[in-house]
Write a structure and sequence with these properties.
The protein has 9 helices and 16 strands. The chain has about 290 residues and is an alpha/beta fold. It folds into 2 domains: about 120 residues, no CATH class; about 120 residues, no CATH class. It has a 6-stranded antiparallel beta sheet, sandwiched between helices.
Length: about 290
């Protein structure tokens, strides 16, 4: 797999051909990272792609007439759509829930999840369709990771959290006489960690204490918006509505050695977020962005 940002021009034709070369040499589970002006983080597959910044999956489908007759020609668009749906299902199954568990592995013994994956593919919409001179049909279809699909595949320990009440920091009166501006979200700068996007990333302290995990996440928001958004630009990340106008910004130190390879933040950052009472609200609502890239 290749992670790259949405605009394949990547500043110059030279960098474009570098990306194409990486596509050719990478195996099915390999990936690399790069940047573009659009700053979307994308995993590229042979038959489609995942845009982790928008939560969209797209795939191509192709079909050709089997016979030179009108009835065969009329069936081609439907066959192309079926091919695209199969490709979407294939991509959905390759998505990683954690670093060691794919959707396909999780669903392999669960008919309900398998049926949900197929429904996600059936719900895809055609965003492009065209015919070749030989009357072949190529279709591009798109579906959404967010919503029903996440409800099926997110771990069961991400549960609904009841309403949280915290004292409004804006009501406090420091010596300066000015109210403290509450934090509205969290940005993790993971550009140096070579992370692969997964559905359920976690954040821990240097001591291994959980900073962002199922303990803090409400399933309602995780299903609707995703556990986090992946962006391939810090400038773009700070402008995202998801994390509000006053986010905390931390740097990821490294990946942990535990099975899920959590993002580790420093002790000073851990102490800072633990002093923020409103963290319970913005973490519950998954107001988290992870910045990838170089």
């Amino acid at each position: 797999m290749l992670i790259y940002s949405d605009d394949l021009t990547i500043k110059s034709w030279q960098n474009f051909w570098v990306v194409i070369f990486i596509c050719l040499i990478c195996g099915p589970n390999d990936y690399a990272q790069a940047f573009s002006k659009n700053d979307h983080c994308i995993t590229l597959f042979n038959n489609g792609q995942i845009n982790w910044s928008t939560g969209k999956i797209s795939a191509m489908g192709k079909a050709s007439p089997k016979e030179n007759n009108e009835e065969s020609n009329e069936a081609v668009p439907g066959e192309a759509r079926a091919n695209a749906s199969r490709n979407i299902i294939d991509i959905l199954k390759q998505i990683k829930i954690t670093n060691t568990l794919t959707v396909g592995q999780y669903a392999s013994h669960n008919d309900i999840i398998l049926a949900g994956i197929e429904k996600t593919a059936r719900d895809a919409t055609i965003i492009k369709q065209y015919y070749t001179s030989a009357l072949d049909v190529e279709i591009k279809m798109e579906t959404n990771l967010l919503g029903g699909f996440l409800q099926l595949v997110l771990p069961d320990d991400i549960r609904q959290i009841s309403k949280i009440k915290t004292e409004n920091p804006a009501n406090s009166s420091p010596k300066s006489g000015m109210g403290k501006i509450p934090y509205t979200g969290l940005i993790i700068d993971a550009r140096e960690l070579e992370l692969e996007p997964i559905l359920y990333p976690t954040i821990v302290s240097e001591q291994g204490n959980e900073i962002y995990s199922a303990l803090f996440i409400s399933r309602e928001f995780a299903v609707q918006y995703g556990v986090c958004t992946y962006i391939c630009s810090m400038d773009k990340a700070v402008q995202e509505e998801r994390i509000g106008k006053h986010p905390l910004v931390f740097k990821g130190l490294r990946k942990s050695n535990n099975e899920n390879a959590s993002i580790v933040i420093s002790m000073s950052d851990t102490k800072q977020i633990e002093r923020v009472p409103e963290r319970h609200i913005f973490l519950k609502e998954c107001r988290v962005i992870i910045v990838l890239g170089q």
